[in-house]
Amino acid sequence: MRKTHKFLLMVILATIIIIYNIFFYNEPNGFTIMLDPGHGGVESADKGAHKEGIDESDLNDKVTSILAKKLKRKGYKVLYSRKPYKEEEEVSLSKRTKRANEKMPDLFLSIHHDSGKKNNRGYTVYYSSYKHNLDSDDLYMTYGSEKYPFIREELNDDGNSSFYYEKDGEIKDSRGLSGFIIKDESPCKEAKQSKKAALSVGKSMSELDYIYGFKKKNHSVLVNDFRVLRDTNMPSILIECGFISNHEELENLQNKKNQNKLAQKILEGVNKYFNVRN
Ligand SMILES: [Zn+2]
Known about the structure:
The protein is of the alpha/beta class. The protein is built from seven helices and 13 strands. The protein folds into two domains: 25-131 and 187-274, 3-Layer(aba) Sandwich (Aminopeptidase), CATH 3.40.630; 136-186. Helices cover 35% and strands 24% of the residues. Helix 2 packs across helix 7 (256-274) and helix 4 (189-205) packs across helix 7 (256-274). Zinc ion binds at residues 38-39, 48, 56, 112.
């Protein structure tokens, strides 16, 4: 081979490597995130809320897959509690939390879309101060403006829980009650980290231009004991991306540009939490 040919070949090779590095290689940043697209799976599965012909789980899958791409590009290892768009059996909440607790990602991130009164609108980021498997000290139950000492949670065979609390010196169970939340007065490290992650993502999402926070315009971060938050043994957050029961908001949430903005803001909030550069 002539010298000039050899040189040319090397230049071409180097260019290919540089292009590959720029566009395809994502240097691992050492953090693993498990994404949890709410509901969905096979045709017969629970699809979450259903409004104007749109299934919540479809929107959850869409946002999850855009977010997954962005996370991978930043070097995160992405796992799923249920793969978006992939036909498989319905993945129960127990199975989702079991998958998370087996893999122990650095963050568990659940994606949902809300449904409620017609004029409700806005996103919410949730975390739990109560971590069922990790910390049973200083637990209490809030019910409206009431507050009761919380005794224990028992997982039933059907995958649901029974909650026991103390009222007027007696142990009661929560059957028949709804809207109560179990909280922890002295949250464990994983719960504190969950709050930190939720605040970081909530703050980043407040920069979105097509949607506001649900409870407070700029700061819709709330505590709740959702199953996937209280049963996961690592920092975990759940994002309700907006209300599909609101006609205008549903249109905004279906818009591709907005979905991309949303995933970008979630990514930036996650980056901030992990101290990864945007
Ligand atoms: Zn949902």
